[in-house]
Specification:
This protein is of the alpha/beta class and 331 residues long. It has helices at residues 48-55, 77-80, 99-110, 115-123, 139-151, 169-184, 196-202, 220-226, 242-251, 273-280, 295-303; strands spanning 3-16, 20-33, 37-41, 63-68, 71-73, 84-87, 157-161, 188-192, 205-210, 213-219, 232-236, 255-258, 263-266, 285-290. It folds into two domains: 3-226, P-loop containing nucleotide triphosphate hydrolases (Rossmann fold, 3-Layer(aba) Sandwich); 232-290, Alpha-Beta Plaits. Belongs to the ABC transporter superfamily.
């Protein structure tokens, strides 16, 4: 597969009297292969939106290299812009225009045949509300209209920033199906979202950014596998036996956490050894299961944005790349 979007060593620095010098992007890398749905993930303030705005020529970088469809940008952006559709942050529309009028205006401005307006309204589920004024739309409907506007040119690269914002569960599922259909048709989709369960379901690959640098990338399966722990869940026939069982397992060198109705055990090369240790003392295991990490677990681990009791994390307090696991908060 060839790279539709490639970013190498991207840098962007902001300077202000109040905050001083802040590196929004610090040598950031990302590669998106053709025909993929690629998840672009990061906590608030991590540099995610800055990256997208820089790729689209809305912000000037201070260093690095970017290509879209093999062409250097921003220098060649006018040549590839017609093959890129995007919504970044919250798009605004004329409230007194209908959806059809809005898209027709955009189609005329972009040299797109108006036949395409009806096609994209059908795709995003707004066909029956196409003549209604945008001011009567819910947040989710406005988001659908934004996606429709990005699809007008039938782009080869589609960049969507939080496309599921405001959608109900049914709308989210429809959006998931639409993204899959677009990828199947040959379109490449870059999808930025905080709904990590959806990203895990729909995306072929992901890039995770924290403090302006890439902290993970690759296929969803590979990212999950490389960041999963060796923790196993152990249930016993009698919940009352958990404290005693925890002491036994700790005694053979494992780390054990006692939960309400099970144990979490890590640090053993052979998890099945737990059953032998417990059976020898008359404790019977009813479940021994590996704890599979999901994308949310991996994201929180890599970016250091998991909640901490009694702490109030600020927007920019995510993990510095290479920082140790302990003491990340507030750094």
């Amino acid at each position: 597969m060839s790279a539709v979007l490639e970013i190498q060593g991207l840098e962007k620095t902001y300077r202000s009297r109040r905050r001083g010098v802040r590196k929004a992007l610090d040598g950031f890398d990302m590669v998106v292969e053709a025909g993929q749905v690629h998840g672009f993930l990061g906590p608030n303030g991590s540099g995610k939106t800055t990256t997208l705005r820089t790729v689209l020529g809305l912000i000037k970088p201070h260093g690095g290299r970017m290509t879209i469809l093999g062409r250097e940008v921003p220098a060649s952006l006018p040549e590839v812009a017609g093959q890129v559709g995007a919504i970044v942050e919250s798009p605004q529309f004329f409230p007194h225009f209908s959806a059809r009028d809005t898209l027709s205006l955009l189609a005329d401005a972009g040299g797109v045949d108006r036949i395409r307006v009806g096609e994209v309204l059908e795709l995003v589920g707004l066909r029956d509300r196409a003549k209604d004024r945008v001011k009567t739309y819910s947040l989710g409907m406005k988001q659908r209209l934004a996606v429709a506007s990005a699809l007008l040119k039938n782009p080869r690269l589609l960049i969507l920033d939080e496309p599921a914002n405001g959608l109900d569960p049914g709308g989210i599922r429809e959006m998931r199906s639409l993204m899959a259909d677009l990828a199947a048709s040959g379109m490449t989709v870059v999808l930025s979202s905080h709904i990590l369960g959806e990203i895990q379901l729909i995306c072929d690959s992901v890039t995770i950014i924290s403090r302006g640098r890439r902290v993970a990338h690759g296929s969803v399966a590979d990212v999950l596998a490389s960041n999963s722990s060796s923790t196993i869940r152990v249930r016993l026939e009698a919940v009352s036996d958990l404290p005693a069982a925890a002491q036994l397992i700790t005694g053979v060198g494992a780390h054990v956490s006692v939960e309400n109705d099970h144990l979490l055990v890590s640090g053993l090369d052979r998890p099945a050894f737990v059953t032998r240790v417990l059976a020898e003392r008359g404790y019977w295991v009813s479940e021994l299961a590996p704890m599979a990490a999901d994308l949310e677990d991996v994201f929180l681990q890599l970016t250091g944005t998991a909640p901490v009791e009694g702490a109030h994390r600020q927007v920019d307090q995510s993990v510095a790349v290479g920082a140790p696991a302990a003491g990340r908060w507030g750094q």
